[in-house]
């Protein structure tokens, strides 16, 4: 399972929000590119970058910071936040980003999503951010009437490469992932699911690893890395790609189910 460090950008800085609240942000670095290099030096094979300003504005805002990250590291980068038209998607892909994450337009413009999936095969990922099972849009400022599972099925049919599922109530809280929601989502679709939100410990990561056979192929980790609650090297040793042999043979995964 991939362990993917998150770099959230607000006014060009690396921050973390609490439950998606822009008024409750904590700055961790003034230089996101340095943060990116730090995670890659510790073994990260992929980075997850979110333009928080862009998510609110509906257009890419932190393009300079995103490009600096792309130039600073050699691993694949996935970027979301404010990607609501073809030009914005093309813009981030042109500066070295491997995958574009679409959120709001998945709900509001599914035909555009289909077009983008066809034009950029395997480069379009859908970010499904949910409150109580319902999809939130526009930087989590609005909540739709669309069920997360319903949207995931539709996006799979349109050609999405993967789904990133974030439980907003858990994001930035270190309260642990929503295993029930992830299990339900993974059982509903066949494309990969990447978990996000609430991960606070290696124990949480192991609980997610138990869902890997069902299609949960990666986990995005944010605040826990920045606070030191999770050491990235330790996390990669525990659940990283090809590391399942490092798990103690007597570990009872049923305790995580």
What does this structure look like?
- The protein has 11 helices and 12 strands.
- The chain is of the alpha/beta class and 257 residues long.
- It has one domain (2-256): TIM Barrel.
- Strand 2 and strand 3 form a beta hairpin.
- Residues 242-257 have low confidence and may be disordered.
For this entry, give a set of tags.
TIM Barrel; 8-stranded parallel β-barrel; 28% strand; alpha/beta; 257 residues
* CATH class descriptor: Alpha Beta
Principal-axes shape call: globular
Helix/strand-derived category reads: alpha/beta
- Give the total of domains: 1
Question: Reading side by side through the largest sheet, how are the strands ordered?
Answer: 1-4-5-6-7-10-11-12
Note the gap between the termini: 17 Å
The whole-angstrom Rg is: 17 Å
- How many helical stretches? 11
What percentage of the residues does DSSP assign to strands (E)?
Answer: 25-35%
Count the E strands: 12
**Helix proportion:** 25-40%
Low-pLDDT sequence parts: 242-257
- What is the architecture at the second tier of CATH? Alpha-Beta Barrel
CATH topology: TIM Barrel
User: CATH H-level name... which superfamily?
Assistant: Aldolase class I
How do you describe this structure in short?
This protein has 257 residues and is of the alpha/beta class. The protein is 36% helix and 28% strand.
How do the strands and helices of this protein lay out in sequence?
Blueprint: E1 2-10, E2 13-18, E3 21-29, H1 32-41, E4 47-51, H2 52-57, H3 63-72, E5 77-80, H4 86-94, E6 99-102, H5 104-108, H6 110-119, E7 124-131, E8 134-137, E9 142-147, H7 148-158, E10 162-167, H8 179-188, E11 193-196, H9 202-209, E12 216-221, H10 223-227, H11 232-239
Parallel strand pairs: 1-4, 1-12, 4-5, 5-6, 6-7, 7-10, 10-11, 11-12
Antiparallel strand pairs: 1-2, 2-3, 7-8, 8-9
Helix pairs in contact: 1-3, 9-11
């Amino acid at each position: 399972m991939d362990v993917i460090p998150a770099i959230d950008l607000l006014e060009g800085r690396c921050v973390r929000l609490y439950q998606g609240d822009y008024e409750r942000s904590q700055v961790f670095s003034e230089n996101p590119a340095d943060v990116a290099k730090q995670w890659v030096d510790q073994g990260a094979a992929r980075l997850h970058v979110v333009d928080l300003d862009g998510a609110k504005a509906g257009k890419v805002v932190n393009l300079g910071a995103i490009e600096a990250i792309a130039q600073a590291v050699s691993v694949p980068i996935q970027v979301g936040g404010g990607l609501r038209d073809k030009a914005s998607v093309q813009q981030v892909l042109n500066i070295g980003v491997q995958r574009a994450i679409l959120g709001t337009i998945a709900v509001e413009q599914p035909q555009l999503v289909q077009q983008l999936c066809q034009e950029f095969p395997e480069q379009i990922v859908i970010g499904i951010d949910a409150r109580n099972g319902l999809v939130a849009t526009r930087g989590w400022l609005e909540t739709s009437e669309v069920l997360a599972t319903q949207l995931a099925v539709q996006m799979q049919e349109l050609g999405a490469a993967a789904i990133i599922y974030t439980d907003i109530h858990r994001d930035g809280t270190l309260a642990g992932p929503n295993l029930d929601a992830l299990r339900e989502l993974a059982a509903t679709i066949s494309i990969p699911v990447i978990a996000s939100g609430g991960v606070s410990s290696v124990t949480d990561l192991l609980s997610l690893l138990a869902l890997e056979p069902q299609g949960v192929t990666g986990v995005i980790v944010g605040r826990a890395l920045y606070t030191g609650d999770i050491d990235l090297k330790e996390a990669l040793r525990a659940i990283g790609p090809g590391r399942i042999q490092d798990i103690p043979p007597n570990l009872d995964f049923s305790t995580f189910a």
